[in-house]
Amino acid sequence: MKLPEPRLAGGMPLAQALRERRSIRAYATTPLALADISQLLWSAAGVTSPEGFRTTPSAGATFPLETYLIAGAVDGLAAGVYRYDPATHGLGQTAAGDIRADLAAACMNQACVATCTAAILFGAVFERTTAKYGDMGRDFVLLEAGHAAQNVSLQAVALGLGAVAIGALDEQRLQSLAAMGDNEKPIYMMVFGKPNA
Ligand SMILES: Cc1cc2nc3c(=O)[nH]c(=O)nc-3n(C[C@H](O)[C@H](O)[C@H](O)COP(=O)(O)O)c2cc1C
């Protein structure tokens, strides 16, 4: 399915988003708007040039990251796991149902993972970058995930959402939960929700 068009201008000034960014781990149960999900995914991997370059830089333009949305409570979107397609700014479902409890279990039972309304999970196909850069490519992929997560983190602030980065994750369990390919490893995740009033 095609996502609503992202907003390409305006919003909170960057310095304010930087000043206000903080890890927020307690969320209201209020569903997220599909427009906010669209904006968050665009900030992670949206295409911003005719050549297909993206909001996030990529070592040698090898684009090793795959971006997944885990929808728990999102207005207008069934709970499930979706792969983001940067070229079409669309989503393809990879798993159905609300997996937040299983997701939390795969992340050391962190409460913020169980209670988030949505999450963005970054999977890495390391070979795309190591084919060009050898062993150094592995580091490049992880650095790239940091860029993507920071984009998402600042975009979340600008949308008035709470968010936190999750690095403590069980690769094998997440790989199967998101129905990732064998050559793809989950490496980093951001979880979100409206902040608890
Ligand atoms: C690579 C990385 C992994 C992290 N993993 C987790 C995590 O698994 N759970 C969590 O609650 N916070 C996690 N955090 C968030 C840090 O705990 C948080 O950034 C730190 O306490 C500083 O607080 P601040 O983000 O509000 O400035 C992670 C941060 C980074 C950079």
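^ flavin mononucleotide complex. The two ends are 32 Å apart (CA to CA). Helices lie at 14-20, 34-45, 100-105, 111-115, 127-133, 136-158, 171-177.
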